[in-house]
Design brief:
204 residues; alpha+beta; Alpha-Beta Plaits; 5 helices; globular
């Protein structure tokens, strides 16, 4: 059986889905919130939690504004490739244009993991092949799930301890809202620097 067939086969039990969201154009927080809202309304995807918001200095790519990042947790019976399509739909709804590798974007939604699924499908590698290197993914993920694990690599808390966290800041003055009455944010490593801005600061 091919990796593609494994990825597309119907599921019979809900799996935890980990999605990483980022935005660095326009009103960044509004774009993240719109992404959360779009994914929350997507058929077959039940959003369960969203992390605190982090600000990230871009690494690599052309000169561009800082990002706002968050991680969203959901439950789904959908095949991973179908979940990827939902992520791409959310990006397109926010005007994402893919004209430059690692360039700025209104909304970026990466499928990080689907439970313990492993796939080398050329269209979708699982888990995300660079997630373990990215503090802007690992820190929000640990924030929303203190016991998170990345299949094949172990606890996210251990991975956080191994990555450079320079330029990644947890924001105390910005947050995202999810469907229903569930909180945003969770356990955060003590070394994560918090940042507040003046109450009268302009919107992103």
């Amino acid at each position: 059986m091919t990796q593609r067939a494994m990825t597309q086969r119907p599921m019979t039990q809900d799996r935890q889905v980990v999605l990483a969201l980022g935005s660095n154009l326009g009103d960044r927080l509004a774009s993240l919130q719109a992404g959360v809202d779009h994914l929350s309304a997507a058929p077959g995807l039940r959003v369960s939690a969203v992390s605190a918001v982090f600000e990230t200095v871009p690494v690599g790519g052309p000169p561009q504004p800082d990002y706002l990042n968050a991680v969203l947790l959901a439950e789904s019976l959908l095949p991973a490739l179908q979940i990827l399509r939902l992520c791409q739909d959310a990006e397109q709804a926010l005007g994402r244009v893919r004209d430059q590798r690692w360039g700025p974007r209104t909304l970026d939604v990466d499928l990080i993991a689907c439970d313990d699924e492993v796939s080398s499908d050329p269209e979708l590698t699982l888990p995300h092949p660079r997630a373990h290197e990215r503090a802007f993914v690992l820190l929000p993920w640990l924030d929303v799930d203190a016991g998170a694990r990345l299949v094949g690599l172990g606890p996210v808390a251990d991975l956080v301890a191994q990555v450079d966290q320079t330029g990644v800041t947890r924001l105390t003055n910005k947050s995202l809202k999810g469907p229903g009455a569930w909180g945003c944010g969770g356990a955060v490593p003590p070394q994560v620097r918090q940042k507040s801005s003046d109450a009268g600061s302009d919107a992103d």
